[in-house]
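Weekly sync, protein design subgroup
Attendees: M.S., D.O., the rotation student, P.L. (late)

Item 1: inverse folding check
M.S. brought a backbone from last month's batch and wanted to see whether the design step gives back something sensible before we order anything. D.O. pointed out we never logged the input encoding, so this time it goes straight into the notes. Structure tokens as presented (92 positions):
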């Protein structure tokens, strides 16, 4: 994703809280996004994301499994798994 779609994703996180950013990070990492790309998209320092990677390792693995199962079931393709927009909860 580049250009307008990436800009739209970045704007989603301007007012996002810490928990929302963590949830988005889990989803992005499960989809194979690099720490650098995650950092740019959710506006969190790469060093913080390194810490989150360790802290959220199990959650990332569970999300990765969910993506894999959806691919195997034919619900999404590999490219959709990488490009499918993710939702940010509006709950506090």
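Designed sequence read out in the meeting:
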């Amino acid at each position: 994703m580049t250009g307008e779609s990436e800009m739209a994703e970045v704007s989603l996180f301007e007012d996002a809280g810490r928990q929302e950013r963590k949830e988005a990070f889990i989803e992005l990492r499960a989809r194979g996004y690099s720490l650098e790309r995650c950092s740019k998209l959710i506006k969190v320092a790469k060093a913080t994301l390194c810490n989150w990677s360790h802290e959220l390792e199990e959650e990332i693995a569970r999300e990765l499994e969910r993506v894999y199962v959806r691919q195997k079931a034919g619900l999404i393709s590999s490219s959709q798994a990488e490009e499918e927009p993710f939702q940010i909860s509006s709950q506090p």
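Discussion: The chain has six helices and no strands. Residues 4-83 form one domain.
Action: P.L. to compare against the previous round before Friday.
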